[in-house]
Amino acid sequence: MGRSKASLSTKIHMACDALGYPLGFILTGANVSDFDQCKPLLKAHLQRNSFAIMDTGYDSDAIRAYVNQLGGIAVIALHPGRSQKPAFDEHLYRERHRIENLFSRLKSYRRIATRYEKLHVTFAAMVSLACILVWLKH
Question: Taking the domains of the chain in order of start, what are their residue ranges?
């Protein structure tokens, strides 16, 4: 667990497919940047010639270059303070709602939303179980 402004909490960094099914996740403390967890998830789950749709927290030239290096196409929301604004496909970015819907489905399990587990390993097991249930219910 990492300390956020309010209290101790955990972030779930998730990769999903085009239909919103979970592919993989990484758990970190709340104080860990999203930026650092992006590369392992992309390396494991990004296929060639596919789109990597990510939010503003991942807006950097380094991540865009990494996605291109893996053979994908980066669709990342632009940070408002960015001076040089690269091309951005707003229409395709609307598909990002699928990952938000996935998080909503995961958070419907109270055990995930309130994080009852004290150990990292047991919380990861519960998130895995919730992801399995998401796959089975569809």
Answer: 2-137
Instruction: Output the six-digit token pair for 41.
Output: 């998830």
Using CA atoms, how far apart are residues 126 and 129, in angstroms rounded to an integer?
5
| For residues 1-11, average pLDDT | 62
State both tokens at 12: 């779930």
CATH 1.10.3470 fits 2-137, yes or no: no
In sequence order, what DSSP letters do the residues of 10-65 get, joined into one string? EEEEEEE-TTS-EEEEEEEETTS-HHHHHHHHHHHHPPTT-EEEE-GGG-SHHHHH
75-126 confidence digits (pLDDT tens): 998 888 888 888 888 999 999 999 999 999 999 999 998 888 888 899 999 9
Task: Copy the structure tokens of residue 21.
Answer: 């099914």
Q: 47 and 21 in contact (C-beta within 8 Å)?
A: no
**Token output for 82:** 């960015």
pTM: 0.84
Amino acid code (one letter) for 60: S
